[in-house]
Predict the 3D structure of the following.
Amino acid sequence: MTRTPNLSHGRGYLAIPGPSVMPEAVLQAMHRPAPNIYAGELVDMMPGIMADLKRVARTKHYAAIYIGNGHAAWEAALSNVIAPGEHVLVPATGRFGHGFGDMATGIGAQVQILEFGKSSPMDLDVIAAALAADEDHKIKAVLAVHVDTSSSVLNDIKGVRGVLEATGHPALLMADCIASLGCDRFEMDDWGVDVMVTGCQKGLMVPPGCSFVFFNERAQKVREAMPRVSRYWDWIPRSTATEFWMYFNGTAPTHHLYGLRTALDMIHDEGIENVWARHGVLARAIWAACDAWGAGGDLRMNIADPSCRSTAVTSLRLNGNDGTRLRNWVEQELGLTLGIGLGMAEVGDPARDAFFRLGHMGHVNGQMIMGLLGSIQAGLSALGIAHGRGALDAAADVIAGGEADGLSAPSSDTVDAVMNDPTCCGHGQ
Ligand SMILES: *Cc1c(COP(=O)(O)O)cnc(C)c1O
């Protein structure tokens, strides 16, 4: 099973769903002596960073930065709008909805979970029923995860806004875009999202350590009516900073800001629509390969309906412990690290070893994805895991603009048309 010679010497590829691959330019931007935090280049960079973050989030309203991970952004966002004893509704599609809800429990909220299982998107009718049943409008916010990174489901965030409108419910719509921002199409203002949280280490291509909360005027009014918000989480000084330290309530994450500046430049140079389109084509190449493998074996994508799949991450299952065997083989023999199955089976349950995930978020291109797929193909063969043939051809056809998945050339127009198709569950209907 181990092959000789070992083929892992060369540049490794971390294909897990965050932290994602860091661009050389981001690494180089961070490789510098400590900058002055009182005046000069770094201080002057801040207004542009805030404006460009909002451009990626597709909002013209407010943004606040926190030195912390995605969990910090969850707590920051909730702390500004939810007081102890208040109610939130959490439609959960995998693991991260439960995480967001658990953060709300931690700050004293009453959390109502709507469980949609591990392989399905949110059911808007069920959300509508829960909102309609809340006649006294006790629910203050709906906490909705755009892309659940464990199941790889893409949820219809605009649809949740539609349901809030249809039921005349005043709850805030809070979206977790930690996995999706800079990968899957997200339109904060157009979709009527009041609060959005994200991190820097997935689609934004910066090492873990910063996270962001975006919010609109409605959310700001709710914040202003809060009895108390702890100083550190308070988004008001951070979003209206008049001095550099106020953006961070203390010392700035100096090197992260240089990395972030470069990452934002890369995203805007490519164009956010093109970034989404690139993720779309690469994801469809992966799905075409997975379909082909699955036709002659037990490999299955966790989300059956392509219109409900994220283009940033793909959750897969094999049999027995084949998921773990495959991950170990491609890492040890080829230098490719795949993601563990997360949230699909409990820790300690042997069933966990059937699952694995592919991260394809951020700084990924065609040759990386073909290398990823070719490596998996080699692993399946080397380990004797049954699989269908033709996966690499199918993926290459998608990348070449062939008809493998029923779509024509991957021009951004075509992809935008697909992304705007009202039958696609995550894209706005
Ligand atoms: C990664 C992730 C989180 C958690 O972020 P951390 O930085 O690990 O705290 C939360 N939600 C989603 C959807 C994620 O992908």
